[in-house]
């Protein structure tokens, strides 16, 4: 059985609904953000981690704004 993004996110099949796509977007934002926060925190000792953490903040703001704009327009997130 092949795993796909829709199966991993628990979609019911077919195109994701507005809620499913936004929920999957939030889950991916959380896990990728957590992974980069760990990498940035560990590498902060040598100084490059602060750049990673700064980029992470900008990336998370981008993800939040994009999600809110799509939600306001009643559009599902691109998966």
Automatic annotation (TrEMBL):
The record's keywords, sorted A to Z, are: Membrane, Transmembrane, Transmembrane helix
Residue ranges spanning the membrane: these are: 30-62
Protein name, per record: Uncharacterized protein
Task: State the organism named in the record.
Answer: Comamonas denitrificans
Q: What is the lineage of its organism?
A: Bacteria, Pseudomonadati, Pseudomonadota, Betaproteobacteria, Burkholderiales
């Amino acid at each position: 059985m092949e795993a796909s993004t829709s199966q991993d996110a628990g979609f019911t099949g077919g195109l994701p609904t507005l809620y499913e796509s936004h929920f999957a977007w939030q889950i991916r934002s959380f896990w990728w953000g957590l992974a980069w926060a760990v990498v940035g925190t560990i590498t902060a000792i040598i100084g490059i981690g602060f750049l990673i953490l700064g980029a992470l903040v900008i990336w998370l703001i981008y993800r939040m704004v994009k999600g809110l704009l799509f939600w306001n327009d009643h559009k599902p997130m691109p998966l």
